[in-house]
């Protein structure tokens, strides 16, 4: 049975897709995708020998060797252009996912959907998507086994359905009025939208609060260690972190 995280990723795959799951490990996702009929064929890509063997065994045990091709290689090198409709990359850092996408951009031609689940570094990945003309159509944040995960789904710019926002709309600077508190308006910059997720901010989930309260705790930890530092740069760094904490707190207060 799939974990809730992998199940939610699977649900982002349109029915009848040809998929490539890159960094597939045990090939749980492609197996479930083909078994459920969501995928008509799948490629499971793995760069490391251990997970590659595990994927090969899992696919054979499921009796799906005819519709799932397990391939050993780095990132998107395992697929040929136009071979798949959907690429899923899950359970890695946003930086690694970004470098995998960036390394073989010709393989993205003809791909109609990316379903990405970074463990950290979501902002790096959002920035790459924005700069390479992919538009977010869904963002989810979930908790599983005391870990938080974000699932980002993107389509090529211009191929969104009606009612879905453009990149310009998603990342337009926002001004949130705070008359109720007597505070001046809060400016939500493009950088902040890249960090926190434009769709997550538009429809905040309790898990989003948990994530950013956790980030505040981490920043407070850094502040505490800076306070004992004698480096002259420490105070500047501390000021910057205090600003970051204040901004996150203000955003969370507005979302409540
Ligand atoms: N995608 C599965 C999931 O979300 O449960 C497995 C995630 S596992 C933590 C990450 C996997 O990515 C590992 O099996 C690792 O070998 C693989 N991996 C890391 N870098 C890769 C790359 N450049 N190309 C293909 N696979 C890679």
Summarize the structure.
Residues 231-256 form a coiled coil. The protein has 256 residues and is of the alpha/beta class.
Any idea of the CATH class of the largest domain?
Alpha Beta
Tertiary shape: globular
Order of helices and strands: HEHEHEEHEHEEHEEHHHH
State the helicity in percent bands. Answer: 40-55%
Q: How many helices does DSSP assign?
A: 10
Hetero groups in this structure are:
S-adenosylmethionine
At CATH level 3, the topology of the largest domain is Rossmann fold
Radius of gyration: 20 Å
How large a portion of the residues is in β-strands, by DSSP E?
15-25%
In CATH, the homologous superfamily of the largest domain goes by the name Vaccinia Virus protein VP39
Low-confidence stretches: none
The overall pLDDT average reads 96
Domain count: the total is: 2
Largest sheet: 7 strands, mixed
Structural class assignment: alpha/beta
End-to-end separation in angstroms reads: 35 Å
Named at the architecture level, the CATH assignment of the largest domain is 3-Layer(aba) Sandwich
Number of strands: 9
- Sequence of strands across the biggest β-sheet: 3-2-1-4-5-7-6
InterPro entries: SAM-dependent_MTases_sf (IPR029063), TrmK (IPR006901)
Coiled coil: 231-256
GO molecular function: tRNA (adenine(22)-N1)-methyltransferase activity
Protein name: tRNA-m1A22 methylase
Structure description:
- With 256 residues, the chain is an alpha/beta fold.
- The protein folds into two domains: 4-163, 3-Layer(aba) Sandwich (Rossmann fold); 171-255, Helix Hairpins (Orthogonal Bundle), CATH 1.10.287.
- It is built from ten helices and nine strands.
- It has helices at residues 4-11, 28-35, 49-61, 94-103, 122-131, 167-170, 190-196, 198-202, 206-227, 233-255, and strands at residues 17-22, 39-46, 68-72, 86-92, 113-118, 134-144, 147-156, 174-176, 186-188.
- Strand 1 (17-22), helix 2 and strand 2 (39-46) form a beta-alpha-beta unit.
- The radius of gyration is 20 Å and the shape is globular.
- 31% of the residues are buried.
- The mean pLDDT is 96.
- Residues 6, 22-25, 45-48, 51, 74-75, 90-92, 96, 100 line the site of S-adenosylmethionine (SAM).
- S-adenosylmethionine binds at residues 6, 22-25, 45-48, 51, 74-75, 90-92, 96, 100.
